[in-house]
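G., the chain you wanted modeled:
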Amino acid sequence: MKETVTQLLESALANLQAQGILPADQQFSPQVGNTKDKAHGDYACNIALIAAKAAGCPPRQLAETLIANLPASTAVDKVEIAGPGFINFFMSTASAFEIVETALAQGSEFGRNNSGNGEAVQVEFVSANPTGPLHVGHGRGAAIGDCLCRLLEANGYNVTREFYYNDAGAQINNLALSVQARVKGLTPGDGSWPADGYRGDYIIDVARAYTAGETITADDREVTGNGDEDDLDAIREFAVAYLRREQDLDLRAFGVEFDVFFLESSLYEDGKVEATVNRLKDNGYTYEQDGALWLRTTEFGDDKDRVMRKKDGGYTYFVPDVAYHLDKWQRGFTTVINEQGADHHSTVTRVRAGLQALNAGIPKGWPDYVLHQMVMVTRSGQEVKISKRAGSYVTVRDLIDEVGRDATRFFLAARRVDSQLTFDIDLARSQTNENPVYYIQYAHARICSVLRKLAEEGVVRGRQECAGDLTLLTLDEEKELANQLARYPELVANAAAQREPHHVSHYLRELAGQFHTYYNAHKVLIDNTELRDARVSLYLAVRQVIANGLDLLGVSAPEEM
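Predicted structure as tokens:
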């Protein structure tokens, strides 16, 4: 319906340009929005305020002229002018419920579009160091990243999901030393325990598997423990493979899969880090000082230059990141989105500066970043800080075991990424209206229950079958439900464009609330079969949109609860 109003206004604007009321050499694009107060109609537009100066008349006068030039349409009951010149549209009942027919006809495709036109987009997310189980922060990144991928795909983009393993550096060495200590029978309380060693019980599991000579199959390799407590390299390779496998199992339990697993170590093995450094040198953006190699990042907006190679010869962490992103660009990804924790904020400027200094034709501001804030887990009002498995933090698997995949995914993706999140385990487990995922899924299950009751009465209704006279739907609640359904395609487009999946969860909560209110106030299984069938059609459209929206969040739509 919004598209109908936009087309009507575009036609009126073209008429005014043809009449010389508006200049023909200017472009006027009406922005039509939903009204907050239905007393002001279904849709509103401020084009008269925007174009009044060009027309040389007051906004209200231009609004009157625009209304007079609107083509006749059965979709609109009336049009009014509000305030200084807003144009409010009241849609006809018949047009309001066209969305029911559309949603049912399109089914699972409703809300999807092809605006991306198959453009290749790479989304990198989670990208945890393979040094332990995935913590709840990784879980938030996984939920947001996967939802974003689903949204982009719903808008016609060709999405590649990528996981970057930081399998090189000091943390991996600490992992190897920790496993070696456990292999030798040491515990964290012993004096010879590594100063920065990992203390979780999972280190014991890795050590036992290594000693037992188990074979571990990771994404791209198979590693067998040789049991030698003095072979640190073998321990390191085994531990990384073991934890990569464990993280992959965690992600699968979470319903997240990746197309590409990229290893930081491969950038060194393939000479890409060294080649990147040499290119930066050749371009004149580096200098030596105090025994270190520096990059002139201040030339690209950084507050100070950054060390690339330390005095000991090792590279700082952002150097392989620059090499990695050059590799992404060379693979043909003109759009790259990195979903990471807010603690990576400082790397954004450095990586972008390094990429600009390469003179590789990479646009400024590339890649895009979505940075999420921290998560606090609570139970009975108290913060939950540790997991036996991890030793110092709450893991994704802990949450899945406690509340299930659906609630975990929904809660972690339900708020703006730039806001801190409190994950209330008690709320996530509750079967009450206060639990948003339960509330939404229950609306879907209620509609499925109505279908079963109809079937028991001998009325078999197809789940995408539109039946009954929709003009019989005259209640305000019914029209509001239809208008909410009509918002869904725009929501899908905007949530992807803004990189904000939480809009989907908010929309579904609002839709479920409207449905439950309608369900409780007005019976559907009534003797008037025409009205019954029309109301069931509305039910089915709501069910379809709830299922489609939950799918974007990676959450199931149960038929019974």
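The longest strand covers residues 158-165.

Shout if anything looks off.
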